[in-house]
Amino acid sequence: MAVADEQPPALTKFLKAVTTVKADDATEILTGILKRREIKSSRNVAKAVTKLLLRFVSQNRHTKLSESQGLIKDVRDLGRYLVAAQPRELVIGNIVRRVLGVIREECHESNTLPGFADLPLGGRLSRASSVGDESTDLGSNPGSGTATPHSGRPFSRDGVEEDIDAMSRRKSKAYIPPNLRNLTRQGSIALPNANFGENNLQHALFSLLTADGIPLDYSPKLKPVESKEAPVEDKDIRGDVIEGIKELLEELEQVDEQVAAHSETHIHANEIVMVLGSSPTLQAFLMRAAVKRKFTVVMIEVYPNDFHETQEMLRAPSKFTTPTGLKQLSKNSPAKDEPLTTAEMKATLASIGVESILIPDSAVPAVMSRVNKVLMGSHVILRNGSMITTAGARNVARCAQEHAVPVVVVSGVYKLSPRYPFDPDSMLETGESSAVVGWADAGVVGNAEIFNPTMDFVPGELVDHYITNVGGYTPQNLYKLVEEQYGTANDNLE
Amino acid sequence: MATIATTSLPKLELQVPTPVDATSTIGDASALKPGVVQLNSGVFDIREVYLTHLRSDHDLTMPVAAIKSLVDLVERINSQTTAEFLDVLNRGINALKESIRNPISLSAGCDLFLRFIVRFLRHSQSMPKLVAHLKQSYKLFDSRAKDSRKKLAKLGSHFITDGCTVLTISFSRVVWGMMMDALRNHIRFQVVTTEGSGGKRLASMLREKGVPVAIVPEGAVGYAMNKVDFVLIGAEGVVENGGIINVLGTCQMATLAKAAGKSVYAVCETHKFVRLYPIDSYDLPVTQSVINFTVDDTEEPKPAKKDTIEEAERIGNDRFVDFTPPTLLTAIITEAGVLTPSSVSEELLKIWF
User: Fold this and answer.
1) Are B185 and B280 contained in the same domain?
2) pLDDT tens, residue by residue, A354-389
3) Cβ contacts (< 8 Å) between A204 and chain B: which residues?
């Protein structure tokens, strides 16, 4: 989880600049900010990158459908440039891939014959949506069914065919968990194309037998028109792509609320919940739960990176904020969309009647036996179910495992990276060591090496559940969400 | 399988086979030797064809050899109906499976082939088209299988990092490919391998390339475990619950690795995914007498029947296998990506059912 910046002035400056300067200049500003690590929380990075991409696409010379490959290439190159500026910030890659997904989707949509989308769905669509509605399984609340109209953007690997299920889902504007879609997919109606709905693994399985020249779709009329060469159908896709990116921005704004919608099913009355970190998502989650539930929060101090904020909190409890969307809870303070520090968070919780206990990091094992649940945020989630988050999290997760306490992670789906952690250590960051021991303390500084890692790698085995804005997932099932979000296109940005 | 397939086929020309055919098939079947299928036009020794394929190309995997033999069979079927076609195909598959001692790996190819044909026919493709398609792609099977191994090696070699020590068991072509890929990327690593079933071959091949290799006896796996960074094993087959079937000793290696907190990566091409759901090693459709109780001190356990030693080693007939449950595996590396055992399980169930 991002160690919250008190105020990221660099971000404010960039967001101001990005609307006025040229995209190239904005890119330079952002890479500078990223290289200097002036924005730390992954939310802020995501926001900045999305804004930049919005600017970039709207100024790009490729606007027509026929030029979409050029646009994809340009965006990918920009993505590589940004990722190279801060390779440890995996969120950059996530956002770029999402935008690439938006562009591809627009291409396919425009490329398909009119009426094709309505063709084979019939009963399957209605069946699928009804099952989807019943099944808002883990976060069974009315919000989750309709929360994510644009969460899934699947597209096929070769860039020609459109996934019917994706279309059906967009049409129904309801999120259907992928596993249920797959169950219903087997149903009554034969698909016109055997490759439809096929994922990477299935494709790989049958690739041995399927000739490249002869795809399994037999009916030529279902193939998209070759409009890439036909100037008649060459339509302007820029507007649609910009629309898609704006939706992504909206999603970033709404993430907290959508995740918080699951809180009631995860936090029960009189529970003791241990909380690590201070991400706005986590805070919104607790705040929403507090509306209906009476529970106790055990806050971990997260020394040394949130240490001073905690001290400040003890001295001046007046400074508090509430997350967006929960304004009704706070009477006297305006909503601010900035990440909160641990100190601010505790103050807010106390102000709405949640019993809060603050413990030092070293007391985690001592308290763990009394805790019902551990909640934490994340910086980045990786496709194999592991995650990168605040330093100290692995300790807490391991301790929870020892006491058989479930570890629940709340996070926006934009933090889910399709990358596999071949070398997790290379993804971790180290902060300034003066936070641990000040430079003035020559007695220590001269005699010891001081190290302040800001991040921790938590393997998937230690996490029990991920709650995202598109529903709950176990670490083992995250791969499905990755497929859902990024499709099977393989964009190598690293 | 056949019944399910035929009922769901859209364009069925249902013709009852002529009585002459039926009687001749039944009449001759009893006299046939294992691995021979009776066709309208004569007999087809699928076992021999399969073994010939394996002998002619040492790089060929068993599932691909099985698929090639089945295509050979399909070319000889001159039936007009889908039902008869599938019947002969099923008989061919059964004959092949029954005639080979350890049919796990080849049955992966057979199931994949059958599934492909059912999918192909379900989408209203006619039979002549199917046969034409198979004939056309016949020559490509080898190269595609090799391509997937290459892709797999490239993907998997990321796991081998500079300065690491890898523990492996026996000789696996995919593991070898991964190591070669890592070597090409100038990665320095060392390997610990067990001495049995091809381990020595791997060691000498790796040493030739300048990789330091330690050969340890099977009993020293637990001893060596703390000196290695992770375990990398090939697989004869990946089953539906996400576990793997591999040479005897894999399960204990994975258990020891789990106990020591080391990652276990299984490496396998997707065409080795088998339609089996074993709970433990005794559920495998292999006859192998690993545990022999006896009071006779002089009686030595008989080695498994083998054709020739070299051939048997390649075909995998001489070696015992065991089943490693999915809970012991960290990930399964395939050309479709690095998958968790549970995701493999789910995807496989989705394909077959």
Assistant:
1) yes
2) 888 888 889 999 999 999 999 998 999 998 899 999
3) 148, 270, 334-336
